Amino acid sequence: xxxxxxxxxxxxxxxxxGSQYYHMGKELYENHPRFKLWMDHCDQIARPLLQESLIDxxxxxxxxxxxxxxxxxxxxxxxxxxxxxxxxxxxxDIQPDYVLGYSLGxxxxxxxxxALSLSEGIELxxxxxxxxxxxxxxxxxxxVIDSVNIIEKYPQIFRDCWLAGKNxxxxxxxxxxxxxIQNLQSELDKKQIMSQKLPVNYAFHTQLVAPHEQKxxxxxxxxxxxxxxxxxISSLKSEQIEHIDESHxxxxxxxxxxxxxxxxxxxxxxxxxxxxxxPSGTLATFVKYILPANSNSVTxxxxxxxxxxxxxxxxxxxxxxxxxxxxx
Length: 328
Known about the structure:
The chain has helices spanning about 25-30, 35-50, 55-60, 70-90, 105-115, 120-135, 150-155, 155-160, 180-190, 215-220, 245-255, 260-270, 280-290, 310-320, and strands at about 10-15, 100, 140-145, 160-170, 170-175, 195, 230-235, 240, 270-275, 300. It is an alpha/beta fold. It has 2 domains: about 10-135 and about 215-315, Malonyl-Coenzyme A Acyl Carrier Protein, domain 2, CATH 3.40.366; about 140-195, Alpha-Beta Plaits, CATH 3.30.70.
């Protein structure tokens, strides 16, 4: 796609933990040869590290309704799926001007940008998952459908939990111990405030993961980080970043996600085409709620858990700006 003819930059968005489910992308895997090729390529890299096939785990061993929450499987599954989606979009001549990640999605964005190789990205997300599965205490994460201001309104019920991310004006995420999150959800139910437990068993974006900082940074120090070929927008920093390393990735896992502020900062300056490459379309939904009424920015999902993913890709391609082939 000829970028000189387009008024709006394209942003590929990559979601993280909480957006995954068994059979995500299965329709494409069975019907889109190029998507299958890229997923199989990723599987060849992941298989020796997992000692089993990620494709089998994702598509053949479990029903779609089962909770998909084992970190050593969900980490590489999200990376491989979203990377493969990015490749088929690029092959459709939909080229990103920026990549943007949410939590684990920042690592995926770094792989797509070229700052970290695919093989090293897969190795990193599997090995850090092994650290957490071996050493971290079980915990939980909860999405709350209300303004983040209710934390100040009801400080007692939130006292043992931490703000983990701000999605949009009426959606945020908290983390805490399994018991504390259960208690919080019970109190929210009493107040008729909607919430949903995420399929994540660790308290990312809080001080509860702090004991694992040294092990994570020692792991990350062995990887080769290079300058990105595609500019990276960080939803941790709420701005474009120039340097990726293990310290940045640790902050991504340890500190709260500022997704809402990141999108607001972007659309205050310019108009964009936001494309969600996550499996559930959650980031596209967040962006829709963030965009001002008079914004010329638009947002699209690629796939979701409800099917018709091939049709969604065709609609996305048809929605892209028409290339003007006239000479300048």
